[in-house]
Amino acid sequence: MKRTTAIFLAIILAFSVLAVIPAGAAESGDWEYELNDDGETATIVKYTGSETDVTIPGEIDGHTVTRLSWKDTGEDFDFHGVFEKNVEKVTIPDTVTTIGIGALMYASGLKDVTIPDSVVKFEEYAFSECTSLKSVVIPDSVTRMGYQTFESCASLESVVIPDGVTSLGPYLFVDCPSLKSVTVGKGTTQISLAVFKDCTSLKSVELPEGLEEIWEDAFEGCTALEKVYYAGSKEEWNKINIESEEILNAEIIFAIPSPDDATTSGDESTPAGATGVKTAPQTGDVTAAVVVLLFAALYISAVTIAKKKKER
């Protein structure tokens, strides 16, 4: 049911994009831009230069640049991101608050992107098919990550999702075969449909204590997944609505020991469902060990004295 709903929403999104992105853009130097609804700020839609290391301007023709977005070419479903394949490094100015729909899509040569703390939102397909991007630092200011934001980022190896993001949108990291580790922020309560689908190298994921649901197919095709580090207890884990069967095949390691596990020590071979947190030795155990050692020392001393007396 949720899969059908997500597909339906995707279709609505596709047609809504056609309605909200105005055709035509103004040109200024190596940039094409469109004015936003307020008539004062601007959205960068195209870079026409040839540099491989590019800094996006914070102002263009007197208009503050607040958004990046793909360009509507006027042809049905013919969209292009701001940059072509040759661009390798992009620096985004601190005037930008939104990395919009398909903004860096198809920038297959992009290896490094600097995102300022001013950015609060990644819209749909924002980094889709940035196949050379190995890592990206997502600022703590980001609170929304849309549908298929990092789809098919073939070289992406790790990602830390900010605490302010409450929901991971459908297919967010779908088909990222090099992704090995993921840390989900403390504020996330929902991992929706097929978020990590076909991330075949994903070995570990850190999940927050406040997580409430994991939708179906969220980890489908994650054949290398070995460990899930959960910030809560086993009891809290059991309350999560988990529809993704794949995640249950991994070893679940809990940060908070359950009452039944309070005196046991976890290690790397901890079975799924058991605490993986090592507990400190109890005070009583230490005291008992000291007493045993003292008695042993006294016994050895007594035997030694007795032997010496016989020798005399």
Detailed description of the structure:
The chain has about 300 residues and is of the alpha/beta class. Helices cover about 15% and strands about 20% of the residues. The chain has a domain at about 1-155: Leucine-rich repeat, LRR (right-handed beta-alpha superhelix) (Alpha-Beta Horseshoe), CATH 3.80.10.10. The protein has three helices and 22 strands.
Q: Can you tell me the CATH topology of the domain at 1-156?
A: Leucine-rich repeat, LRR (right-handed beta-alpha superhelix)
Order of helices and strands: HEEEEEEEEEEEEEEEEEEEEHEEH
Using only C-alpha atoms, the radius of gyration works out to 28 Å
CATH architectural label of the domain at 1-156: Alpha-Beta Horseshoe
Q: Report mean pLDDT, rounded to a whole number.
A: 82
Identify low-pLDDT runs.
1-23, 262-312
List the helices and strands and how they pair.
Layout: H1 2-20, E1 26-28, E2 31-35, E3 42-47, E4 53-55, E5 59-60, E6 63-68, E7 71-72, E8 79-80, E9 89-91, E10 98-99, E11 112-114, E12 121-122, E13 144-145, E14 158-160, E15 167-168, E16 181-183, E17 190-191, E18 204-207, E19 213-214, E20 227-230, H2 234-237, E21 241-242, E22 251-254, H3 283-311
